[in-house]
Design goal:
Length: 211
């Protein structure tokens, strides 16, 4: 048996078990999805959103990329955001990073990771530069990277607030609240590190006045 065939056979078992517990499970989900949450997480295989939050299909709209970034020119994350906020009308957006993130660690190194990864990780180097005084003062490399993971999540939440997508929803009084969380690979526990309620004012430079 090939390794990928295991996935297909486990899927059959899972689908059968779901129906035994809840016969209408798939039928109910077939035509509507009304998730309350948008999750923007790291692609890391050790941080599966539904599993660590014990949520079911239909509960979380998910976008993942390396180091959970919200990049202003990334059509992928922005289209997910637009759809989640203005069509699904999610109430909460969660940016969830994780301690020990390989992407964040790589951004603190001076290795040339070839152009595409260099481009992506540059976003994290910029965050390090903004918080250089605080980060340089942390002696242990592991603690320094973990703090950068927290600051990264905070900056990505602010990046969400800078978009016209989120600001338009806030103006219309439709939420959503923004949350920055960090998951611990060592203990499986999520640590909330930053929060921005709907309607929070940010640096006026980023606020649109004609939405
Ligand atoms: Co990661």
């Amino acid at each position: 048996m090939h390794s990928y065939e295991k996935l297909l056979s486990l899927n059959k078992i899972w689908a059968n078990e779901k129906i035994i517990v809840e016969p209408e499970f798939f039928k109910d989900l077939q035509h509507v999805q009304t998730p309350e949450f948008l999750w923007i997480g790291c692609s890391d295989s050790r941080v599966p959103p539904n599993e660590i939050t014990q949520t079911q299909p239909g509960e979380i709209f998910i976008h993942r990329n390396i180091a959970n970034l919200v990049v202003n020119t990334d059509v992928n994350v922005l289209s997910v955001l637009e759809y989640a906020v203005h069509h699904l009308k999610v109430k909460h957006i969660i940016v969830c990073g994780h301690y020990g993130c390989g992407g964040v660690k790589a951004a603190t190194s001076n290795h040339n990771l070839k152009q595409v990864l260099n481009m992506w990780l540059r976003n994290i180097k910029d965050i390090y530069r903004i918080h250089r005084d605080e980060l340089d003062a942390i002696e242990s490399e592991e603690s320094r990277i973990d703090r950068l993971v927290e600051l990264n999540v905070q900056e990505q939440v602010m990046n969400l607030a800078k978009t016209s997508i989120v600001q338009r929803a806030w103006k219309e009084g439709n939420g959503p609240d923004l949350h920055g969380w960090v998951y611990g690979l060592k203990d499986g526990v999520i640590n909330p590190v930053f929060e921005m309620k709907a309607g929070t004012h940010i640096d006026p430079l980023y606020e649109f006045d004609d939405l």
